[in-house]
Design goal:
mainly beta, OB fold (Dihydrolipoamide Acetyltransferase, E2P), 1 helix, 6 strands
């Protein structure tokens, strides 16, 4: 049995950019830094930083580009994928990325300014910003036919 699963919690290294494929699919690539600290045999504190490339598709890509900023904490769950390609000069390249299947936004980053909810400033975000006084929460609208009766649940 094979198993390819990655879970990281780290900080975003740069503001993500939303792109769209020719087929209309949303995609965002972002960098996430994770660190580990330990004491060496002499008792000195050591730290190691690892940088990860993360790819998000569809609605998650749109949410990431809207709410994640440099320095924000994010949890990413997904799988590893390695790609290889040849550049114009004929050199071979390989990269390993995390193909995100689940993303969870962390607390607001320090210095987000103005009580923003990890969102970009109003100018960067098309005039939409959140303030501590008026946090806009997403609304889920379900029609009556979308709700299943309890006796219809298969367990």
């Amino acid at each position: 049995m094979d198993y390819n699963r990655v879970i990281i919690v780290g900080r975003v290294t740069a503001n993500p950019e939303l792109k769209t494929t020719p087929g209309g699919q949303s995609v965002t690539t972002l960098g996430v830094a994770t660190n580990r600290t330990w004491n060496d045999k002499n008792g000195a504190k050591q730290e190691e930083v690892e940088f990860h490339n993360v790819v998000l598709w569809g609605r998650q890509a749109e949410i990431a580009s809207q709410f994640l900023v440099k320095g924000a904490t994010v949890l990413i769950e997904g799988r590893l994928r390695t790609r290889s390609w040849t550049d114009k000069q004929g050199a071979q390249h390989r990269t390993t990325e995390i193909m995100a299947e689940r993303m969870q936004l962390g607390p607001r980053p320090a210095g987000a300014g103005g009580g923003s909810f990890g969102a970009k400033s109003a100018n960067e975000n098309g005039g939409n910003s959140f303030s501590a006084k008026e946090e806009e929460l997403p609304t889920i609208n379900l029609e009556e036919e979308d709700l299943k009766p309890l006796d219809d649940i298969p367990f």
